[in-house]
Amino acid sequence: MGKVYMKLRVMPEDVDIDLEKIYEKIKEVAPENVEIKDYKIQPIAFGLKALLIVAVMPDEGEIGDQLVERIQNIDGVESVEVEATELL
């Protein structure tokens, strides 16, 4: 069984949302076998920024869907988009 690399774009509900706090919450709610490898805050437009997350997880079941669902349930998160997935 391999590992899956997943790149996610997390959009906040408002320009005033602290993306560093959202990142910390993502690390807390991630399933135990998901490793959050990296993140970046990317300017979008008019003060709006997106949080880009890189996660590595085992290639099993619905673990990626679980991660996305848990992130969507964090207060202050508007949406989560999977930008890329790759089998390592």
UniProtKB/TrEMBL annotation:
Pfam families reported for this sequence: EF1_GNE
UniProt keyword list: Elongation factor, Protein biosynthesis
InterPro entries per the UniProt record, alphabetical: eEF-1beta-like_sf, EF1B_bsu/dsu_GNE, Transl_elong_EF1B/ribsomal_bS6, Transl_elong_EF1B_B_arc
Translation elongation factor EF1B beta/delta subunit guanine nucleotide exchange domain boundaries: 3-88
Record bears the keyword Protein biosynthesis: yes
Family: Belongs to the EF-1-beta/EF-1-delta family.
Function: Promotes the exchange of GDP for GTP in EF-1-alpha/GDP, thus allowing the regeneration of EF-1-alpha/GTP that could then be used to form the ternary complex EF-1-alpha/GTP/AAtRNA.
NCBIfam families in alphabetical order: aEF-1_beta (TIGR00489), PRK00435.1 (NF001670)
Name of the protein this chain belongs to: Elongation factor 1-beta
Source organism per UniProt: Archaeoglobus profundus (strain DSM 5631 / JCM 9629 / NBRC 100127 / Av18)
Taxonomy of the source species: Archaea, Methanobacteriati, Methanobacteriota, Archaeoglobi, Archaeoglobales
Gene that specifies this protein: ef1b
